[in-house]
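The passage that follows is intended for readers who have already worked through the single-chain material. We present the inputs for a multi-component assembly, then the predicted structure in tokenized form, and finally a short commentary. You are encouraged to pause after the input and sketch how you expect the pieces to fit together before reading on.
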Amino acid sequence: MMEKERSGVAGLKIKRALIHIVLILLTIICLLPFYILLINSTRNHVDIQKGFSILPGKAFLKNFQNLMSNPNLPVLRGIFNSFIVASGSAVLTTYFSSLTAYAIHAYDFKGKKTIFTFILMIMMVPTQVSALGFVDLMRDMNLTNNFIPLIAPSIAAPVVFFFMKQYMESALPIEIVEAGRIDGAHEFRAFNTIVLPIMKPAIAVQAIFAFTSSWNNYFIPSLILDKKDMKTLPILIAQLRSADFLKFDMGQVYMMIAISIFPVMIVYFLVSKSIVQGVALGSVKG
Amino acid sequence: MIKKKTSCIKYTKWGYIFLIPFFLVYTVFSLIPLISTFYNSFFENYMSGLTQVGPNFVGLANYNGLFENTNLLKFTQNTLIMWLMGFIPQICVSLLLAAWFTNIRLKIRGKQFFKVIIYMPNLIMAAAFSMLFFAIFSDIGPINDLLMRLGILDEPFRFLSSVGGTRGLVALMNFLMWFGNTTILLMAGMMGIDVSLFEAAEVDGAKAFEIFRMITMPLLRPIFIYVLITSLIGGIQMFDVPQILTNGSGSPNNSSMTLIMYLNKHLYSKNYGMAGALSVILFICTAVLSLLIYFKFTKKEN
Amino acid sequence: MKKKLLSLLLATMMILGLLAGCSKSGEETSTDPEKAPVENGTEDAKQGNDSKEEAVEVNEGKVFNIYCWNTEFQDRVKAYYPGYTDNGDGTGKIGDIAVNWVITPSDDNAYQNALDAALLAQADAADDEKVDLFLIEADYALKYINTDYAMDVEEIGLTADDMKDQYQYTKDIVTDSNGKIRGTTWQATPGLFAYRRSIANDVLGTDDPAEVQKRISNWDDFNAVAEEMKSKGYTMLSGYDDAYRTFSNNVAGPWVQDGKVIVDDNLMKWVDQTKEFTDKGYNNKTSLWSDGWAKDQGPDGKTFGFFYSTWGINFTLMGYSLADSDAEATVGNGIYGDWAVTEGPAPFYWGGTWICAATGTDNPSLVKDIMYTLTCDADTMKKITQETQDYTNNQKAMEEIANSDFQSEFLGGQNHIALFASAAPKIDMSNISPYDQGCNEEFQSAFKDYFDGNVTKEDALQNFYDNIVIKYPELTY
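Having made your guess, compare it with the prediction:
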């Protein structure tokens, strides 16, 4: 009996060691590309061509300055544009998705079930299939090279709506709303002053997701924006891939990728705890 | 009593009012474009140089054009193959990791750290991630250099010139971007399972794998459906990663050309008729797939 | 308190987002009414009294938009157009007029699409948004030349006498079906074979261009030298596409005939030769513009030579040759000075950039002046050639330099202008079509799979046809 238990403990130890090795390997696979990126963004073109290096070079500032002074890649402008679009989308999508979810959650009205099912159905429709009509319509409305077509549609985001609805079910008892009504609060005010604060954890998580997905979005913006000053970061990156004359200097190429990746990474590591917890927040019941 | 009823009607009104923004925006930015896309698919409508051709009503000619060519089938296959190549390892690794992380007896150190790391690639801009892979996996890039120095390769492996290499890279990126997310979702599901079930099974002498198969898996079914559907829909929409990796060419031999890349090509040549027809086909495919999976899994559950 | 903060944040972000959209349109509309009367005033003034040139220029549009696909022309204007000052942020100034460069990479017809969109909107665009000047390449010049979007240069003010020294082919290519010239260029683009002197010495025992030419004057000899190169650890060419233009420029007919795509026999010869080179290890399997291709032209390269035309030598090859791109381009920096050029096995040309005036421009006199200075003025053109080794479009000036003791440091003291001067008059562009860029790109890309061993020749051809009709729906095969 004792013997068996001991071997069990030893087996567990070996298992634990193996698991840790696997985990460390996975971590390396996850981090290696970014490590190479970090290193190569500090090296100059000729050094990069010579091959891989474990240690950073000394050209970080030079690459950065070269990129910043490259008139054909308005990086700062791109970051600014991306930021406007992403934060605009994040704000609108969380606010209006909460509102929509609240309408379904808190009120009883005719056709509620149908509407709910309808929203769930359109969740399955990929945005790309209506891209053609979308671009066409925006051109007719004179909204190309404009951020409105990139920000406004986030008001109707079925996925975020679904998340908010799930969260309300667990965190927003209908009594709270009714208590507010007894106090004589106006419905719209009640939503803003009572419901929104309760939704804060869900809003925070979804705001971050909406921000990053908009920040990373490439397909629709590439069809809407073609003016240099309006381009967002992903479009500039794609340009880097296709433009011959931008490839003279791999140092700049790496620097450009680094600039679009590392800020998001840093912010992520700062708030990672709530993100990782939030991922599962709304979908557990799904 | 009467008073209460009227107030209820009064409140009901607000339900509709609060739905207005959603449906207004949805109509303008999604529904009308969707209908106009469908409408466009019945017309010949493209730019020839600087001259507009059409729109001329051509019935189903655009659809015929798409189905006549075997490419549509091929691109569908490509999309599914690349999705599966990423999804299968993704679901296996995620299950394993989730099982490890939720197993208290294993006492894994730095759980939080690993969770943070594996989720991170999910937030990376696919365009930048893809450009990064393009740079480091090039014929003379750092990865080949590293593999050669470690003695694993004698000469550079030309990833982007081989079918397996290109599809593998796309799958690897999709895997890296999504396995952390899936792990966390599965963990949430596993932690929701009553511990006493496991204990009872253990008392009955069930082995670890049996417990997993008989208890964990069935209880995880809803989460599985969720992961499968979202991943499949994401897979059908696959675009950024292969587009930027291959510069839109879907090389080699169109083997990494996805459906949306094909759509993008038609949009790019301003061929609205063909792009419309392709959109409609995509729409039908997604709808059928989603409904199929939805009904198949929910029925079994009942 | 927190609640207030949140709502404040919400409000500011929304306003910020909306402003970003609105301010743009606001700018546009506000310029419109301001501009219109000024413009009308100019017209009146012109008609009323023949005012001085100066006055006209002052009253022209305030923004000068130039559409192009890389920085080559920008560099020329910066260095050789008097009065141009660079703002350092991709814009410049000529006097009071702001110069705005709209650069779209040419890959996959992206540049043409952007230009098309702008030209189609030209009539309704605000003056400051109008295209004033746009650049086109030989591969698709015809698409614009046979339309009214490009102005007749005589209307702009260039006379036949101004252009008398330009190479005839550079004028032929931009002449529309009614005999009107609708563009002009500062360069002629005959192609040559550029090779590394050090490798030539090592393998062939000489680096003298005339001697090297004897060894590679036809394809059989060229292939024999390729074998020698390989035995010494070098590759003859870098990649698949290097020799492409030497074949594609010597075809029997254009790419597209009566709406049908025709693959010329000579192109299939390129396919066979490149396949042979690939299988025998005479090249490095790189593709045009890839990092490996660039590396082969640099200090660490082990490739004998590259087929390049004029701009490729002074713009591309020189850029890649340097070890330190920030240091001065001179002997000792990388392999600067280790290059030489010779005619190679077949004559060809590659590229060439034409300047067109956009119909509807609000800066016609500036357009004329730029065109004249850069493409007709012999002194400027001579200066460009002497300082940048570019080959400019002035037969007289070039022959003068060809017969002088001009030496290119980059090419190890060779007077390459003499070689270009004898090659340029032979250029024949009678087989171009408006679809050449798309066809060339798709053809090279489809056959890359064949060279890599991924598909058969027949499949590669089929892939080419499939892709070309997606790109140009009006074509058949």
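Commentary: Residues 2-58 of chain A form one domain. The CA atoms of residues 179 and 185 of chain A lie 9 Å apart. How closely did your sketch match?
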